[in-house]
Every structure is written in structure tokens, then in C-alpha cells.
Specification:
alpha/beta, globular, about 30% helix, seven-stranded mixed beta sheet, two-stranded antiparallel sheet, Alkaline Phosphatase, subunit A
């Protein structure tokens, strides 16, 4: 029995508005930790065919807050000079009218919740689904709001498995958030045996414990000091290869979605591979950890 005052799922769906004719399905594909120059070096033909690939900047250097911004409708930003922030937000948010095939959508359309998924679901009639790879985005976090379906996938690096679960009911546009973990440390493809993954002391331990939803784990520094240049180059090469692999998965995604679907491909943040003594992302202030690719268009 549902709690007093709460609607059953069937009741909630029945009260959802009928979508306006011509609304586009919308897919937001986040290549976790993928930095801009990695994406460019990988030369992903399918993803690049959406439109011009832009260098943009994330609002955050860590996964969870960055995804929160994305789900507020705040896409990674350019850095225009002599521009008021309010003017930039207004112009950038108007892009959602093209993404969704709608009209009259502004940032204030999200008031008071200021969150995109419940707006799409409850105001425009979308079906909303999230499939995420990283445990810090699990369904118990505040990011899971306004979604009909929210899944933490069993593997952190299998975008193709998400595609197997995608459905597009007739007569109702869909919004999908897909968080792809192949480009996140350890930059492993789904068919690569785990014993071949790179293992960095401390970093791999934190990753393992995050998979178990264990908070408060501390990382040890790698034995022998910071990582050497050869090790950093190998890790960056693995991220480049992950982007190339994901480009093939993306081709399949384009064959699954309904005609006219808008797809945005970006990253939540970049990654450091030894530049200026940094590795990874999170408590890091460096251009490369904020620099992300951004490309979008209709398929």
C-alpha cells in the first residue's frame, strides 16, 4: 500500500501531461572524466558528426556536483569576455527549445525546483531515465529526482549494456541521462579482463571501495613517489582508446533512438595525467580538469 498522500506509479503516469506534438527525445551522454584534448586526439567520427566539437568548461571538477549542474540544465560553458553571466545563462538555456523541439523554455521555466528531469516529466510529459556507471551517482543521492527509472549499472564500464535497456514508448518523448564510465580510471573496456587493468596504489583502492558504496576511504600515496611520465602517458593513451571504443557504441545508439532525437555528448570534467604534478580530478584546480568536449545535434 502507498503511504497516505502519495500516488502510486500508475496514478503518477496517468496524471502526466500529454506531450505536445513534435517534441524531441533527448539523450545526454556524459563521457565521465574525458578531457577535451583526449577527445580530439581520439578523432571519434560518429560523435563528431553531430556538429562542431567545442572546447567548453565544466562547472565543477568532480562527478557528483558536475552532474547536478548538468541536470539543472547548465551545460558546460564557454568563457566569453565582456558578457554578463545572466545574459550568458539566458542565451545558453534558450538552446533547450531546439534540443526539445519546443518553444518558450527559459531558465525560469524550472522554478521553483530548478531541476530539469521533473520539469521534463511533469510539465512536458517526458519519460525520464538515468543509467549511471559511477557509484557516487547511485540512486540514493539527491541527483535522483524527477526520474521514472534510475539505474546504477552493475559494471562501471559498459555503455553498450545501457543501450540494451533503452526503450522509446510510442507517443511519448524520452529523456535519457547516460553516464559512461569507460573514460574514467582505470580507463578499461568492458571485455578487458580486470587483471589487465592498471592498478595505482591508493587510487585503485578508493575506486574499489566506492564501488561498494563505502564512504570515507583514504588513499595512500603511490609507493616510490609520484607517477612517472611513462605511466601517465600509458593512462592517457587508455583514455584515448576508450573514446575510440565508445564512438562505435555511439553509432549503435544513433540506430536505436527515434528519428529526430537530440543528442548532447560532453563530459562532467577533465582529467590530469601528470601535468604540473597532478593526477586525476576532484580537489584539483587546473585548466585541464575543467576543460571538456561538447558536441550536439539531431540524429
Amino acid at each position: 500500500m502507498p503511504e497516505a498522500g502519495k500516488k502510486t506509479p500508475d496514478e503518477a503516469v496517468s496524471e502526466r501531461p500529454t506531450p505536445a506534438p513534435g517534441l524531441n527525445s533527448f539523450v545526454l551522454l556524459v563521457l565521465d572524466s574525458c578531457r577535451y584534448d583526449t577527445f580530439i586526439e581520439a578523432r571519434p567520427e560518429a560523435m563528431s558528426s553531430l556538429g562542431p566539437v567545442e572546447r567548453r568548461y565544466s562547472y565543477s571538477s568532480w562527478t557528483a556536483p558536475s552532474h547536478y549542474n548538468l541536470l539543472m540544465g547548465l551545460m558546460p560553458h564557454t568563457s566569453p569576455r565582456r558578457t554578463f553571466a545572466s545574459d550568458y545563462y539566458r542565451r545558453d538555456f534558450l538552446k533547450f527549445n531546439e534540443r526539445l523541439g519546443s518553444a518558450g523554455i527559459e531558465f525560469r521555466s524550472l522554478v521553483p525546483g530548478l531541476y530539469l528531469p521533473p520539469f521534463l516529466r511533469d510539465s512536458l510529459g517526458y519519460q525520464t531515465t538515468a543509467m549511471v556507471s559511477l557509484p557516487v551517482l547511485n540512486s540514493r543521492t539527491p541527483i535522483n529526482r524527477g526520474f521514472d527509472i534510475y539505474r546504477l549499472m552493475p559494471k562501471h564500464n559498459d555503455l553498450a549494456a545501457m543501450l540494451d535497456l533503452m526503450v522509446f514508448p510510442p507517443g511519448r518523448p524520452c529523456f535519457y541521462l547516460l553516464n559512461a564510465g569507460e573514460t574514467h580510471y582505470p580507463y578499461a573496456l568492458p571485455d578487458e579482463p580486470e587483471n589487465l587493468w592498471p592498478r595505482i596504489s591508493g587510487v585503485h583502492g578508493v575506486f574499489k571501495h566506492l564501488d561498494d558504496h563505502v564512504a570515507g576511504t583514504s588513499a595512500e600515496q603511490p609507493s616510490g613517489g609520484f607517477f612517472d611520465e611513462a605511466q601517465m602517458a600509458e593512462l592517457r593513451a587508455r583514455q584515448i582508446e576508450a573514446v575510440r571504443y565508445l564512438d562505435g557504441v555511439f553509432r549503435r545508439l544513433c540506430s536505436i533512438v527515434p528519428r529526430g532525437t537530440w543528442i548532447t555528448v560532453t563530459s562532467d570534467h577533465g582529467e590530469l595525467f601528470g601535468e604540473d604534478g597532478y593526477f586525476g580530478h576532484g580537489p584539483v584546480f587546473h585548466e585541464k580538469v575543467f576543460e571538456v568536449p561538447f558536441v550536439e545535434g539531431r540524429v
